[in-house]
From TrEMBL:
Name recorded for this polypeptide: Ribonuclease R
Gene from which the chain derives: rnr
Annotated ranges, domain S1 motif: 623-704
Reaction equations catalysed: Exonucleolytic cleavage in the 3'- to 5'-direction to yield nucleoside 5'-phosphates
NCBIfam families xrefs: 3_prime_RNase (TIGR00358), RNase_R (TIGR02063)
Keywords, sorted A to Z: Cytoplasm, Exonuclease, Hydrolase, Nuclease, RNA-binding
PROSITE patterns named among the record's database cross-references: RIBONUCLEASE_II, S1
Species of provenance: Geomonas propionica
Length: 737
């Protein structure tokens, strides 16, 4: 054997990728020398000097695929680069991330690809820093100190320069601060910065909200110029504004929302016409008050969406509009955009028209009130709303027809429980309950879906550039894994040309109803789904089994709806010129990308605020026992959601009964090699609250026992295919793969 690194690099330096077997021959490697070659190849791959391709083919560094994307790091040091152009994330080991941080945009190179198709790589260059400011808890050290980030993904503390320059004198030990980064980690130099704002004491509910706002950079204060523009808007509809609109004020129109809602952007009305039912969905005409290019419009675009916390809303528009002139309050005139649709006895849409209108809502109904009338048959509620009862019954009938149509074409409904946080006047969590979703919710949901779909179909067939709400087909690899997974339970899910029809998935969900594996298969199926987003290109909506879909019904709180309103109004008025189409084609792709990003940021902020309230609720529950379901499985532990409280926490793998555990990724399970004990997603278990780790925002559980038994996987057959996690004792040396 011609030994060493130099021989390998000379062979690969010829430019062509070299298969392992060809390398053995070219380097004259004997059977006894293969181990030394393997070790050298592994070393060169780890240092990034060469790349390992699928099929155990090697090439020089730089020859592998490169990509640009956003870095998402884990608290344990490793990370993933999410490609800007889509596709599978690239795993990056911790050793390549010493100078990079969560949120950075980077250029990365694929170093190796495993047999299962998952890629591993390293970062080549920094494109743009993702974090410039950090929110965290200040710890005083001498005349300086450090800031422990609120976001554990950042993985490192920020050191504050001593004295006035670093702002350390502003803060007291333990307070929450906002710090600006002055230098990023390079080599042995740590992350450094200065304190620019003291938010307050750690356990103050107001500070907790501010922490999330600052962390996610949520615009939450309207500047004076935006407020001045909002205050110029009238608070009553003028006769001039009504001119040219269809007058629906004599129609019995109602709003149906939650008890705490203050911004009402949709109102509905129905009429029976033989065996057909006519539906009017009237949506607040926000575009009448928010002119394109105005300061109000610019601010609304920047925010993208309203953000809802358990105790407050950060609105997209100032209250003068969101809760005032744009809100469809009862017994006052309001300007609207109406989608009028006629449905036959089978629920098919047979006619539609759209127009600007003026309405006067007859009543502000709540979901609870409508449920009392239609479901509970509550005598008092029926008497109080006797003038509305007939229409509510027609609405119920129409919603059932519309739902049947959606289900018939394969629309997928995940009716998963959602938590509702109950707070006291001081902002402390007093209870966590299951949010109710009753018939009234489904009525409004079906009507809004129908209006959104009708508007999308109209704009697509006009045709005119528009913004669509799209939901792409699930990832092919995940679909194949799902097909194999459900086959183990005796279900057939056909994947044809790397695709599956919504009807097939809906059929699968129907087949598992009431079965022990129902929750398990629902959870795994949900993980296959891609995230819905906004796009100028209509790619259809997989989850709704709709060929075209948009968002039209919430312009008070979603900017894409406002965009669609403007396009629709211009089309209806006959003012859509070719120059307007060209302008839309140029701008809409960026609008879709931006509003999708803002939606994701809002969702993450809302989720973190809810998780924080849940964690605080569990502070005094240490030692108490609960039933829960396993909601996720990882090599380092089990994620568990409590049945009654909807609180999620973790059972660390180190606390499970002593064993070596195999992580079966495709089976979503951990299996003990010796005991053969299996812990799988959706299994029901009994846990005890062990700790509340506030710095990590994590509730830790201890396993008491399993409540449901599962069939045992053939662990011995997959031993060499999955990572083994030792709990105690010396880990055996794994076989070379």
């Amino acid at each position: 054997m011609r030994k060493g690194k130099d021989a390998i690099m000379r062979l690969l330096g010829k430019g062509e990728p070299v298969p392992y077997r060809q390398m053995l021959k070219a380097l004259n490697v004997s059977r006894h020398e293969r181990g030394r070659l393997d070790d050298m190849l592994d070393y060169l791959v780890e240092t990034g000097e060469i790349a390992k391709l699928p099929g155990r083919i090697y090439t020089v560094a730089g020859a592998g695929d490169t990509l640009r994307g956003k870095l998402s790091t884990h608290r344990d040091g490793y990370g993933f680069v999410m490609p800007e152009d889509g596709g599978e994330d690239l795993f990056v080991p911790a050793r390549y991330l010493t100078e990079y941080m969560n949120g950075d945009t980077v250029e990365a190179q694929v170093v190796s690809t495993r047999r299962d198709g998952k890629r591993e790589g390293r970062i080549l260059a920094l494109v743009q820093r993702g974090v410039t400011e950090i929110v965290g808890r200040f710890e005083a050290v001498g005349k300086g100190g450090r800031v422990i980030p609120d976001d554990p993904k950042l993985g490192r503390d920020l050191f504050v320069t001593p004295g006035p320059a670093g702002g350390a004198l502003k803060a007291k030990d333990g307070q929450i601060v906002l710090a600006a980064i002055t230098s990023y980690p390079v080599g042995a130099r740590p992350l450094e910065g200065r304190i620019i704002e003291v938010l307050g004491e750690a356990n103050d509910p107001e500070v907790e909200v501010l922490t999330v706002i600052k962390k996610y950079e949520l615009p939450h204060v309207f500047d004076e110029k935006v407020m001045a523009e909002a205050e110029q808007q009238p608070q009553q509809v003028t006769e001039e504004a009504i001119q040219g609109r269809v007058d629906l004020r004599q129609r019995q129109t109602v709003t149906i929302d939650g008890e705490t809602a203050r911004d009402f952007d949709d109102a509905v009305s129905v009429a029976r016409e033989g065996d057909k039912i006519r539906l009017w969905v009237s949506i607040a005409d926000v575009s009448h008050y928010v002119a394109e290019g105005s300061r109000l419009d610019t601010e609304a675009y920047l925010r993208g969406t309203s953000v809802y916390f358990p105790d407050r809303c950060i609105p997209m528009l100032p209250e003068q509009l969101s809760n005032g002139i744009c809100s469809l309050n009862p017994q006052v005139d309001r300007l609207t955009m109406t989608a009028e649709m006629l449905f036959d006895s089978d629920g098919a849409r047979v006619d539609q028209k759209f127009y600007t209108s003026v309405i006067k809502s007859a009543a502000r109904l709540t979901y609870t009130t409508v449920k009392k009338v239609l479901v509970d048959q509550d005598a008092e509620a029926i008497e109080t709303n006797r003038h509305l009862v007939a229409d509510l019954k027609v609405m119920e009938e129409l919603s059932l027809r519309l739902n049947a149509v959606r289900k018939g074409r394969g629309s997928i409904d995940f009716d998963l429980p959602e938590p509702q946080i109950i707070l006291d006047l001081q902002g402390e969590t007093t209870a966590i309950v299951r949010a109710e979703r009753n018939l009234a919710h489904r009525i409004i949901e079906e009507f809004m879906l129908a209006a959104n779909e009708a508007v999308a179909h109209f704009l697509e067939t006009t045709p005119v550039p528009s913004l669509y709400r799209i939901h792409e087909n699930p990832d092919p690899a995940k679909l194949q894994d799902l097909s194999e997974f459900v086959f183990g339970f005796g279900y057939i899910m056909k994947v044809v040309d790397e695709k599956v029809s919504p009807v097939a998935l809906q059929k699968l969900l129907a087949e598992v109803i009431g079965k022990p594996e129902e929750r398990l298969i629902n959870e795994v199926l949900l993980r296959c789904m891609k995230q819905a987003r906004y796009s100028a290109e209509n790619l259809g909506h997989f989850g709704l089994a709709a060929s075209s879909y948009t968002h039209f019904t919430s312009p008070i709180r979603r900017y894409p709806d406002l965009v669609v309103h403007r396009i629709l109004k211009r089309v209806l008025s006959g003012k859509m010129k070719q120059a307007d189409k060209d302008r839309l084609e140029a701008r809409l792709p960026e609008t879709g990308l931006h509003t999708s990003k803002r939606e994701r940021v809002a969702m993450e902020a809302e989720r973190e605020m809810v998780d924080l309230k849940k964690m605080q609720f569990m502070r005094d529950k240490i030692g108490e026992e609960y039933d829960g379901y396993i909601t996720g499985v990882a090599p380092f532990g089990l994620f568990v959601e409590l049945v009654d409280l909807f609180v999620e926490g973790m059972v660390p793998v180190a606390t499970l009964p002593q064993d070596y555990y195999v992580h079966l990724e495709k089976s979503h399970a951990l299996v003990g090699e010796r005991s053969r004990a299996m812990y799988r997603i959706a299994d029901k278990i009994r846990v005890k609250v062990a700790a509340v780790n506030e710095p990590r925002k994590q509730v830790e559980f201890a396993l008491i026992g399993t409540l449901e038994k599962r069939p045992i996987e053939p662990v011995a057959d997959v031993r060499n295919a999955y990572q083994r996690i030792p709990i105690k004792g010396k880990r055996p040396k794994p076989k070379r793969r």
